[in-house]
Amino acid sequence: MQHSSTRLNRYRLITQAKLCWLALVLCVGGQKVRADMVSEVDVLAPAKQEVLLLITGAIKYTNQGDHSAHLDAEHLQHLPQHTIHTSTVATDGVKRFDGVLVRHVLDLVGAHGTYLEAQAHNGYTVHIPMDDFFDYEVLMATHMDGKQLELSDKGPLWIVYPRDSHRKLQDIRYDYRWVWQLKQLTVK
Ligand SMILES: Nc1nc2c(c(=O)[nH]1)N[C@H]1C(S)=C(S)[C@@H](COP(=O)(O)O)O[C@H]1N2
Ligand SMILES: [Mo]
């Protein structure tokens, strides 16, 4: 009787020790994974080329002292490239647009807000609900019909909606969100 209860206690002790060890491994391991994830995305690479887009406001990842993100062509080239064929209210016929999804740009800077204030080089400013970029494949276009967009012609960045694919987007309320000559986004 005495003997077996000692064995039982020893068994309990070993089991508890194993559980503690397991908990420690899981805890330390989990933290390590989290630390690795943060270090990978925490620091946004500095812009090495001409700055195409400035992002400020409610963003997590920045590369400027003033808590803004300056993005150049290289930042955009590292994101998945996306193509949309659509007609627009500003051009004739169906055009091919290449660029990156706005939602991927927002992910890159860790944007967390409800709308964007988009500002263009010509002073045009408009508010765009964040939901647009998750409901639709909205493009930040860099090219139209294979040609790079220039500042003199809607560039260097143009917000392009997949207008022809969605009835709802064929509306003036969306047309005014097609900001051409895009310069800055403020996440609010
Ligand atoms: N940079 C910039 N983007 C802009 C505008 C503008 O004046 N400047 N006008 C908006 C409006 S009101 C509309 S309806 C669409 C199409 O305008 P457009 O036909 O003059 O090109 O672009 C939008 N994007
Ligand atoms: Mo407009």
Automatic annotation (TrEMBL):
Identification of the protein by name: Molybdopterin-dependent oxidoreductase
InterPro entries listed in its UniProt record: OxRdtase_Mopterin-bd_dom, OxRdtase_Mopterin-bd_sf
A Pfam family it matches: Oxidored_molyb
Domain Oxidoreductase molybdopterin-binding: 93-162
Top-level taxon: Bacteria
Organism: Alcaligenes endophyticus
